[in-house]
């Protein structure tokens, strides 16, 4: 991974108009993030509970679920992603227009979770770039809301003069991986208890 | 049929080109010059899913349409296959319990119960009275919350949004109960081999009683809204009909089978947990269409409340866990002071309890149908084979039969009526 | 408009009403009467009858499977009309043959029977399909094929169902298949991303679709070479 060319004006030298414009655009974006719920498993149920009356995503401007990626801002990957689903989530991410963000909800989307086996992608960050990880199995609705707040704060910190944040990460055409293979292997390595659990008998 | 042709028509973009930019392709027949542009007999291919709001998970349906009418339906599953059965061979019996939560995640505690019953059969353990009644309570609560999800999502699919909010509000109340009991809302892991993870806390029965008293009002509210509603009836009557013989031959179970007229309920026919001592009815439909399945599930909600009342009335005192040192961890005070208890604790945690060589297929009535766990033991602490017999898997296999001849929007209604959980189907 | 009929089981439970089983012995105990009926009907095809934890298992000769299952389905004294499950078991000891297991249920007589057929591992793993008798076997046998590599003769459409059709690593539930798969994670991801998620048809689906003949010739050729459709 080479160094990314970053070009933006240092914050102290930004003009008053630019900062106010940044604030306005970011405020508009952060408070009306239309989620694209890529819900696969149990986390999707907690996502639905977050959208329902008790925890209510509507107060964050997110009640308009966009199931078409073309109209969505944030892809919330709620649930485990097996390898068969990997090209689908990649395709959906590529179909979303910029500006877009990604929340990886739950342990399985963030790291493969308890599914350290042949079938499950060990974290969707090996396929698409993720902005916020929400841990939990499944995360409580309050947890998801905390993750959404973090994303909103991240959006508020963005600056229009920083052109690198809207770069689309292109996968390598031959291997279709967007990060190098050794990095993927390293990210997917078992850790903790999982290291010992390849014996099928005692 | 001789002069019909199937023409692929792109309804969305054609995808991305080699640089990852969207390709533009006009929606005309000009790209297939070999075919004559005669649209009258051509069928269209539509892909629904795997990412779709109305497929109840990552299900992919490829439909061949003649106008709006479905000619063929090819379902594709496996988009949520996560190797449950493989990993069951690498985990001790108590370690598999959290896995049973994630598999049918709408009926988590029901799955926990089913697995614990299967493991107890393999070990030859009889659980205590209190545990039996607590499991019945947990199982029926699980049935209620699963049917509420079915209700909410089916209503959204057919177009009624409000019952979804009512259903999920009731689910929150059951979540509160479950959280007070086992600490988790959705993925409960509430049972252990030989007992439960924890006994119910003080005041829990009063809270459950409060729920039982007020929940039927919500059922009535939804009933008033939908059952005689012209739109609902028009959208659901006569769809996806399966006759009784077909339903049995296709292996359908649960409300799908009962709506078609076959009165098979595992709780009545192969009872477990003492269900034969409870007074409840099993609703059976006549036409086997989507409307009957709706009526059957609504009635099952009422019957579940009835069972809960009886179970709550007869909840006995006594221990929750069986007094078997092979499977139940000794209390910490003993494990740190007595040698024998310490050894039991050590063996159970490090090695896991080991059942004798054998096999067992234990079946429960999950909200989706006949849920079976087939476990084969070779005497070690990890099963040789852990097979999940998923009711939704077998129920969904009948969808090509059910949607043929119906309209595209009916496919969504029929799919919703099967009440599938992809976690269970794909495992 | 229809009303769901509510079945009332009656106030006093009649004799023979099923009860929750208690004190089930590990081995032995009452046998399913179908086992002895089977032994009477198909003398040489029945190898063994076991009763383990209250469930009767009949080990049969795989060559006679269709006859046995058809008899169990059609005979009026047996009427096993419900196929619960078709699955397979491979033991950790490599010498024990692979077992294919059928779980049958008779709804009228309230009976449960397990049939097993042993397939030695040296020979190709093949057994007859019961799809012609139970439509429920359709996806159950496809899954068994996907996970174990057992071919079901006579199945109309035997292809992978849970893994994608070009899955290279093998049959996941075999004991020689490691838990995390055979390839590295990056390689697994690479192969997974090489699928085309918008492929309308796979080759097997197309060959059973009548419209195959009408496709343009070059598309038929491309499909024949295993290329993906749609783009």
Largest sheet of chain B: 4 strands, mixed
- Spans where pLDDT lies below 50 across 5 or more residues of chain B: 10-14, 28-37
How much is the average pLDDT of chain B? 88
Query: How would a crystallographer describe the biggest sheet of chain C?
Result: 5 strands, mixed
Tally of helical runs of chain C: 6
Rg estimate of chain C, integer Å: 22 Å
CATH topology of one domain in chain C: Beta Polymerase, domain 2
CATH superfamily of one domain in chain C: NADH:ubiquinone oxidoreductase Nqo5 subunit
Distance between the termini of chain C: 47 Å
Secondary-structure class of chain C: alpha/beta
In helices, the fraction of residues of chain B equals: 40-55%
Give descriptors for this structure.
heterotrimer, A: 202 residues, alpha/beta, Rossmann fold, 4-stranded parallel sheet, B: 427 residues, alpha+beta, Cytochrome-c3 Hydrogenase, chain B, 2 domains, 3-stranded antiparallel sheet, 46% helix, 13% strand
Q: Care to describe what's here?
A:
The complex is a heterotrimer of chains A (202), B (427) and C (231). Chain A is an alpha/beta fold and 202 residues long. Chain A is 32% helix and 9% strand. Chain A has one domain: Rossmann fold. Chain A contains 6 helices and 4 strands. In chain A, helix 1 (16-30) runs antiparallel to helix 5 (141-156) and helix 2 (42-51) packs across helix 5. Chain B has 2 domains: 5-76, no CATH class; 84-426, Orthogonal Bundle (Cytochrome-c3 Hydrogenase, chain B). In chain B, strand 5 and strand 6 (195-196) form a beta hairpin. Residues 10-14 and 28-37 of chain B have low confidence and may be disordered. Chain C is of the alpha/beta class and 231 residues long. Helices cover 23% and strands 21% of the residues of chain C. Chains in contact: A-B, A-C, B-C. Strand 7 of chain B pairs antiparallel with strand 1 of chain C, so a sheet runs across the interface.
């Amino acid at each position: 991974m080479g160094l990314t060319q970053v070009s933006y004006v240092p914050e102290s030298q930004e003009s008053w108009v630019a900062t106010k414009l940044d604030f306005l655009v970011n405020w508009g974006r952060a408070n009306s993030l239309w989620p694209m719920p890529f819900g696969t498993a149990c986390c999707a149920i907690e996502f639905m509970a977050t959208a329902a009356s008790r925890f209510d995503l509507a107060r964050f401007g997110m009640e308009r679920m966009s199931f078409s990626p073309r109209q969505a801002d944030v892809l919330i990957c709620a649930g485990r992603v097996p390898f068969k689903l990997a090209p689908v989530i990649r395709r959906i991410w590529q179909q979303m227009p910029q500006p877009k963000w990604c929340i990886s909800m739950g342990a399985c989307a963030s790291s493969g979770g308890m599914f350290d086996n042949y079938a499950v992608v060990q974290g969707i960050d090996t396929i698409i770039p993720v902005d916020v990880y929400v841990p939990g199995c499944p995360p409580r609705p309050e947890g998801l809301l905390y993750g959404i707040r973090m994303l909103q704060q991240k959006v508020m910190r963005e600056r229009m003069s920083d052109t690198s944040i809207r770069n689309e990460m292109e996968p390598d055409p031959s291997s279709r991986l967007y990060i190098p293979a050794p990095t993927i292997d390293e990210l997917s390595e078992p850790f903790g208890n999982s290291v010992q659990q390849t014996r099928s008998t005692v | 049929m001789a002069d019909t042709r199937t023409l692929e028509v792109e309804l969305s973009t054609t995808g991305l080109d080699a640089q990852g930019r969207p390709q533009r392709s006009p929606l005309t027949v000009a790209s297939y010059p070999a075919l004559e542009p005669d649209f009258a007999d051509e069928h269209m291919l539509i892909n629904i899913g795997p990412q779709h709001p109305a497929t109840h998970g990552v299900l992919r349906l490829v439909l061949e349409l003649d106008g709006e009418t479905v000619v063929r339906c090819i379902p594709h599953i496996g988009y949520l296959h996560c190797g449950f059965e493989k990993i069951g061979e690498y985990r001790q019996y108590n370690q598999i319990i959290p896995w049973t939560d994630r598999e049918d995640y709408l009926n988590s505690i029901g799955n926990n119960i089913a697995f614990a019953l299967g493991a107890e059969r393999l070990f030859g353990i009889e659980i205590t009275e209190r545990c039996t009644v607590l499991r019945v309570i947990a199982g029926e609560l699980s049935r209620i919350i699963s049917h509420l999800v079915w209700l909410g999502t089916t209503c959204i699919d057919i177009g009624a949004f409000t019952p979804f909010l009512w259903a999920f509000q009731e689910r929150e109340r059951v979540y509160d109960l479950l959280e007070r009991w086992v600490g988790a809302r959705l993925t409960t892991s509430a049972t252990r081999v030989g007992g439960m993870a924890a006994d119910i806390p003080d005041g829990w029965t009063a809270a459950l009683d409060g729920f039982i008293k007020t929940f039927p009002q919500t059922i009535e509210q939804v009933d008033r809204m939908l059952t005689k509603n012209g739109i609902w009836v028009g959208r659901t009557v006569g769809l996806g009909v399966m006759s009784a013989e077909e339903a049995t031959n296709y292996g359908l179970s649960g409300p799908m089978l009962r709506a078609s007229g076959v009165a098979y309920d595992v709780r009545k026919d192969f009872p477990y947990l003492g269900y034969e001592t409870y007074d409840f009815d099993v609703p059976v439909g006549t036409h086997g269409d989507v409307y009957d399945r709706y009526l059957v599930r609504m009635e099952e909600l009422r019957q579940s409340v009835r069972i809960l009342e009886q179970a709550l009335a007869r909840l006995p005192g006594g221990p929750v866990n069986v007094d078997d040192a092979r499977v139940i961890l000794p209390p910490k005070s003993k494990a740190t002071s007595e040698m024998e208890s310490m050894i039991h604790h050590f063996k159970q945690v490090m090695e896991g309890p080991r059942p004798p060589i054998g096999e067992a297929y234990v079946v429960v009535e999950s909200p989706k149908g006949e849920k079976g766990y087939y476990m084969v033991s070779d005497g070690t602490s990890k099963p040789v084979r852990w097979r999940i017999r998923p009711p939704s898997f077998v129920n969904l296999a009948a969808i090509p039969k059910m949607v043929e001849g119906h309209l595209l929007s009916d496919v969504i209604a029929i799919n919703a009526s099967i009440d599938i959980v992809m976690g269970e189907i794909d495992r | 408009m229809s009303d769901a009929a509510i079945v009332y089981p009656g106030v006093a439970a009649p004799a023979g009403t099923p009860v929750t089983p208690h004190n089930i012995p590990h081995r032995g105990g009452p046998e399913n009467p179908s086992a002895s009926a089977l032994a009477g009907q198909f003398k040489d095809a029945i190898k063994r009858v076991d009763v383990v934890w209250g469930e009767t298992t009949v080990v049969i000769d795989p060559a006679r499977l269709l006859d046995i299952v058809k008899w169990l389905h059609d005979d009026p004294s047996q009427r096993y009309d419900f196929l619960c499950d078709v699955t397979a078991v491979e033991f950790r000891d490599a010498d024990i043959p692979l077992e294919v297991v059928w779980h049958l249920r008779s709804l009228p007589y309230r009976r449960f029977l397990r049939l097993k057929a042993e397939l030695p591992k040296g020979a190709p793993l093949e057994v007859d399909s019961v799809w012609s008798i139970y439509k429920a076997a359709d996806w159950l046998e496809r899954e068994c094929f996907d996970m174990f590599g057992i071919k079901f003769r006579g199945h109309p459409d035997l292809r992978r169902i849970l893994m994608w059709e070009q899955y290279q690593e093998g049959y996941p539930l075999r004991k020689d298949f490691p838990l995390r798969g055979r390839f590295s994670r990056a390689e697994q991801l690479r192969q997974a991303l090489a699928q085309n998620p918008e492929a309308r048809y796979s080759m097997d689906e197309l060959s059973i679709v009548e419209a195959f003949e009408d496709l343009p010739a070059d598309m038929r050729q491309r499909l024949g070479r295993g290329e993906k459709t749609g783009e």
